[in-house]
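From the methods appendix. Each design record in this collection lists the tokenized structure first, followed by the designed amino acid sequence. Records were kept in a plain field format so they could be parsed without special tools. The example shown here is representative of the layout used throughout.

RECORD:
FOLD TOKENS (527 positions):
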């Protein structure tokens, strides 16, 4: 019965999140921010199997086709476009376009569903970490009522998909820890400790299904954005640390090195190896049309950077079968080298109005303006501004301030508590923060944006949830501490909801007078 109650609670929070993300999803009825790339690439992949280049006035043609019902005709050429991000997220966008057509609702619906599913995963992960359905719901509601998560769940960008698959991977790693420790406890109770070379009971745990699923999830995360590679490495090392800790706790000597062999090797294969296979497979459409990319991109400025030779695969004679596959994989490797060159060297001198330094992400220093419609006159679209003023509509990528600002304190608390108490649960937000935030400091010489912090958000929510658990204390009956802690945590959640409601119009293209908009723009950097 407890399982039914637990899953029902997760489903209820997920449905609430979905309802909020579906409201007026088709507005604004235009390409917002980088939707102009991903929505069109997704449609091309859906209909042709690969990303074709589109004509200069593609946006106008597509929007005209939506208005007239004629569809997006005459938009794509027969040459490929150089996509600079992997393809999983675009395939997910394509599913919505397949179901609802090449319309704003069609290219955004997958993000809305994925955002709601991410809330469900958060509920389940928080429950695993705390053992409490209430704290699971608390974490799910925090994620549900965050503005950054809301807006990215209403746009055809890649980041919500990367964050979703990353959170799924982390959930699998935590579930593997629980399963492995439970099985080791059974072996210890049965005194099954006399293994060959005294490697410890972990030697019998070669197949770890949760890690296998984690490999799939991490592979899909990397297959959406390369930034998920660092969390994969970080949580892979955390698996090793947890394994060696379990072995050491039951008296295995040299537990760190023995665990690297009996636990680390199979864990690496099932987590990293599977992720690699899934990642390469996600490029199936590219591989099937590799000759198109060989013709178009084997000798670009990225391919010949620093006097490199063009792709040697471009000059090989036609091939079929296994030989063609091997050649396509080689071309894909050269393509990856060139895309990395683009990111690492060709963006250094670029600038963008909404670029921001990662040092300011956690305090919401510089959000991103996705869409804005200014100078709406009084009487138009229901504008109730005074005669001398106007109204506007905006979509601003910014988190719920109360959540993020208190979250900074929770993340600092997580670092201290993990170091002082060795509470394994706090390793999750600490490793998550370190692997999703710190790497961006190495790329602060090129345009990077606050909304990349969507992968930090789940670990902020986990830190807040675990800190709330410490504040309330153990369930040993009523006490002043539990009462005060419950009131404090409940008050915080209410403040997050109120803050969310206040900012709702600037997340959802709502109509505001200029004075109402200024009431929500608290700092100059938010303009």
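DESIGN:
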């Amino acid at each position: 019965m407890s399982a039914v109650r637990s899953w029902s609670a997760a489903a209820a929070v997920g449905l609430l999140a979905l309802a909020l993300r579906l409201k007026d999803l088709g507005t604004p009825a235009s390409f917002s921010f980088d939707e102009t790339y991903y929505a069109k690439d997704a449609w091309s992949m859906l209909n042709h199997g690969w990303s074709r280049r589109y004509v200069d006035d593609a946006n106008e043609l597509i929007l005209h086709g939506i208005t007239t019902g004629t569809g997006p005709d005459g938009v794509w050429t027969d040459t490929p476009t150089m996509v600079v991000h992997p393809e999983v997220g675009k395939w997910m966008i394509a599913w919505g376009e397949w179901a609802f057509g090449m319309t704003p609702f069609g290219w955004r619906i997958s993000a809305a569903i994925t955002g709601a599913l991410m809330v469900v995963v958060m509920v389940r992960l928080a429950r695993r970490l705390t053992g409490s359905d209430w704290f699971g719901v608390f974490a799910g509601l925090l994620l549900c009522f965050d503005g950054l998560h809301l807006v990215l769940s209403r746009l055809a960008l890649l980041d919500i998909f990367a964050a979703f698959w990353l959170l799924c991977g982390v959930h699998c790693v935590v579930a593997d820890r629980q399963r492995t420790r439970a099985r080791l406890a059974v072996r210890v109770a049965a005194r099954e400790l006399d293994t060959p070379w005294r490697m410890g009971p972990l030697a019998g745990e070669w197949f770890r299904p949760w890690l296998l699923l984690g490999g799939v999830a991490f592979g899909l995360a990397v297959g959406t954005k390369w930034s998920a590679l660092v969390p994969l490495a970080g949580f892979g090392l955390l698996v090793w640390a947890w394994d060696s800790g379990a072995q050491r706790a039951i008296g295995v000597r040299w537990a760190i090195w023995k665990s690297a062999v009996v636990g680390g090797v199979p864990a690496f294969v099932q987590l990293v190896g599977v992720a690699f296979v899934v990642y390469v497979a996600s490029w199936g459409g590219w591989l099937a049309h590799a000759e198109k990319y060989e013709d178009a991109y084997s000798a670009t400025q990225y391919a010949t950077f620093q006097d490199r030779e063009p792709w040697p695969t471009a000059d090989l004679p036609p091939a079929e079968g296994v030989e063609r596959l091997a050649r396509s994989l080689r071309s894909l490797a050269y393509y990856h080298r060139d895309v990395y060159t683009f990111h690492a060297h060709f963006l250094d001198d670029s600038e963008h109005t909404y670029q921001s330094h990662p040092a300011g992400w956690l305090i919401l220093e510089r959000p991103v303006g996705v869409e804005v419609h200014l100078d709406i006159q009084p009487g138009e679209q229901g504008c109730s501004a005074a005669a001398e003023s106007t109204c506007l509509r905006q979509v601003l990528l910014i988190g719920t301030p109360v959540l993020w600002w208190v979250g900074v304190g929770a993340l600092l608390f997580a670092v201290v508590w993990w170091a002082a108490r060795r509470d394994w649960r706090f390793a999750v937000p600490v490793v998550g923060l370190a692997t999703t935030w710190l790497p961006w400091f190495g790329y602060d010489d090129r345009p990077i944006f606050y909304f990349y912090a969507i992968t930090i958000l789940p670990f902020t929510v986990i830190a807040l949830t675990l800190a709330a658990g410490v504040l309330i204390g153990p369930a040993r009956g009523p006490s002043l501490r539990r009462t005060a802690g419950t009131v404090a945590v409940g008050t915080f959640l209410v403040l997050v909801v109120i803050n969310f409601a206040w900012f709702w119009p600037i997340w959802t293209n709502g109509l505001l007078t200029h004075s109402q908009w200024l009431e929500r723009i608290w700092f100059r950097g938010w303009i």
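APPENDIX NOTE: The two ends are 50 Å apart (CA to CA).
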